Amino acid sequence: MLTVVQVVVVAVTKRQAAWATRQKLNSLTVTLCTLGLIVSTLFIGAAKGAVLPIERADVLYHSYEGDGVTIDGPSVLLRKNIGGKVSVSANYYVDTVSGASIDVRATASPYEEVRKEKTVGVDYLNNKTLLSTSFTNSSENDFEANSVYVGISQDFFGDLSTISLSYSKGWDVVGRRGDESFEEEADRQKYGLGFSQVATKSLIVGFNIEHISDEGYLNNPYRSVRFLDASTDRGFSFATEKYPNTRSSTAYSINANYYLPYRAAIYGDARTYSDTWGIKAQNFKVGYIHPIKDDWIFEVFIRHYKQDKADFYQDLFSRPDEFNFMARDKEMSSYTGVTAGISVAYEWQFSQTATFKKSAVHFEWDYMKFDYDDFRDATAEAPVGEEPLFGFSANVLRIFASIWY
């Protein structure tokens, strides 16, 4: 049986404002997912009942470079099964961030910091039901986040259908560099519902709903709005952004994975997103997976993303208190993004009597291009409000190795 392992690390455009990045993750589906289980099922032509995750050790190096920001670091995952019904896991993930994105460069200097994330999880299998729970802590010098996750999935109709429910809750503590007295909090809740169906021996389809509710300090203490100011040489000045203290979002997605007669597979998914801040977004992705013999697997994909701006977003305001809520974070603006990726994986088997059963290495390179419809480059030499519209490209590299035992 062929196994496709694809761990997609979210490529963030900045970390000095971790909460702004989280807002982007709510709207931009730079997906964090694994296609391996689905594609493996297609390769063998039938679905299996609920099973525990495979015992394994994974090591990942990821690198992102774009918009003046470089992010890289390692991730290590260990998973061990106990008694055929319980699986425990631990993950350690590091982001080393340097530089500054365009909207930070307009008001501040580049920076460097490290974010460390630790996750522990437990899965419990009872017949055709799989229960999962985990705890995650993410820490950096101006941001502390804790979250818990609970999920349940159930197979039925001869193991051809699976329904899943999930809930997670997060508690964030927001700080600000150079201001020891600044401390704010935010709470986040996420509800998920998923359904997958083996439609034919070659086709699996799925549908998912996700609802997120945020409350508390949802601002970015480092980002500013700009407003007209004739008293300055540039013709504008900056003031702190002001966001609502609540936000709700809902996303719907459908996906399909089809096994081709010559053992390859094609897949696609579509996602729509909307929230109470007025942001609406659509995401489409198609991909192709091609195995060669029993050892090599190649994959290519392309993804398109389009977003409409938040109701209180503007590139340039007339005065610092023009509205109750004001934002200029480019991730709150109208923009489009295209991502194209290519990956190659090599897997080799060991003796079934050996301590290690098999191993795999995976390499992936993604190219990302973003164009903004109403966010201008405030660092450019041009009359105020007539600066060129901003756009940038980024490269994402992942090298991943896994050992099954």
Describe the structure.
- The protein is mainly beta and 405 residues long.
- It has a single domain (18-337, 349-404), classed as Beta Barrel (Porin).
- The protein has helices at 18-27, 36-44, 102-105, and strands at 56-66, 69-82, 86-99, 111-126, 129-140, 143-156, 161-174, 184-200, 203-216, 224-228, 236-240, 246-259, 265-275, 280-292, 296-308, 335-349, 358-376, 389-404.
- A hairpin with a 2-residue loop joins strand 5 (129-140) and strand 6 (143-156).
- Residues 1-48 have low confidence and may be disordered.
Main attributes?
single chain, 405 residues, mainly beta, Porin, two-stranded antiparallel sheet, 3 helices, disordered N terminus
SS-derived structural category: mainly beta
How helix-rich are the residues, as a percent range?
A: under 10%
- Biggest sheet strand order reads 1-2-3-4-5-6-7-8-9-12-13-14-15-16-17-18
Number of domains: 1
Q: How far apart lie the N and C ends?
A: 16 Å
How can the largest sheet be summarized?
A: 16 strands, antiparallel, barrel
What is the strand content? over 45%
Q: In the CATH scheme, what's the topology name?
A: Porin
Helices, by number, come to 3
Radius of gyration: 23 Å
Q: What is the tally of beta strands?
A: 18
Write the layout of secondary structure elements.
Blueprint: H1 18-27, H2 36-44, E1 56-66, E2 69-82, E3 86-99, H3 102-105, E4 111-126, E5 129-140, E6 143-156, E7 161-174, E8 184-200, E9 203-216, E10 224-228, E11 236-240, E12 246-259, E13 265-275, E14 280-292, E15 296-308, E16 335-349, E17 358-376, E18 389-404
